[in-house]
């Protein structure tokens, strides 16, 4: 079920009403209700894939208990390995099987060997990368003695499948979210108010900005070989804001819905395009995934310890794996490696932007390099990526399309984010009193209705 679908517009208020009217008196009843509702939410897309969530949940629930109660290091390692095999095995089959088969066929063909292997018609379950990483971190944290296992199976299943963040995050850690399923929270006005404002801002980013940019982005990337450099530069900028508003919009809606039900989900974006370098960008972009890879991949590899060569290896490997997590295509791996290269100066060079001019230049340069990397992320193939970049530097700087509406939208959006960059919801900073703020909220609702795209366009990160 999409957040921006007609079904969800009925689903959320009904669930909210039932939750606080009948199902919020005890932990057991509350969690049972949330589990059923979350499975209904996910199963609305394709009920068959509920089995995968159930398998991940049940296996890690049992494995977590066995890791915790095992006295032998060997047994603990065995059960952790079992969790990795089950979760990554399911993820690998659905997401990467065809990629590896296609890559092997191409490699064999290049050296004159005919392979009889064939790809399969596999449907990628939405959100599988997100809930897989969420359950994996649970088992790893228990193994590392950072967490005690959940005793209540319903609470754990509800934690894994919590519908606001099930499909596209944030990727929650059990130590943050799981304890919240073990207590009952009454509805509070402050939480409800902040939740509604987050949902409003998330919808504005999704249907007003991201979905309106989708058309020009698709057109420019599909026709990049016949367009001028001006169009292509705008295309990369438009996609940068499309994916940011699409993904952070989802996160804002998820966090806002969580607050309506009394849950605190972690912040996933912190105005990343105002970063002054790549290091800062990755502290602000998809924070739940960046910190996951830091804690469960980069640090176990050795982190920043050892020689410079060792640190570079760990960093590039980290970003390559992060890119591969996003999709089964070499374009994502190259996108990851390129971002890893961007990150290197942040480690070895200590450059401070201590004046407004230097900060401004640093932000613009960082954004420009980020847009360049996004070309690989958005393109259908490596060849298309390099063709797109080559045409940017072809010397033909004409702009053939008309993008006035999109540019005005982006100007207003960036201005709002800049003025409100010190708040979780930037629109909270735009009024000197409650009357002006209410006018702004009302105006935003009107703008969404008048200019928003309501074609139920799927969120970009559903495919990951």
Question: Which terms would index this structure?
Answer:
2 domains, mainly alpha, globular, 17 helices, 0% strand, 464 residues
Number of helices: 17
Number of domains: 2
DSSP strand count: 0
pLDDT under 50 segments (min length 5)?
none
Rg result: 23 Å
What is the distance, rounded to the nearest whole angstrom, between the alpha carbons of the first and last residues? 16 Å
What share of residues are in beta strands? under 5%
Average pLDDT value?
A: 87
- Percent helix among the residues? 55-70%
Instruction: Report the sheet with the most strands, covering strand number, pairing sense and barrel closure.
Output: none
Shape: globular
- Could you spell the SSE succession in H and E letters? HHHHHHHHHHHHHHHHH
- Structural class by secondary-structure content: mainly alpha
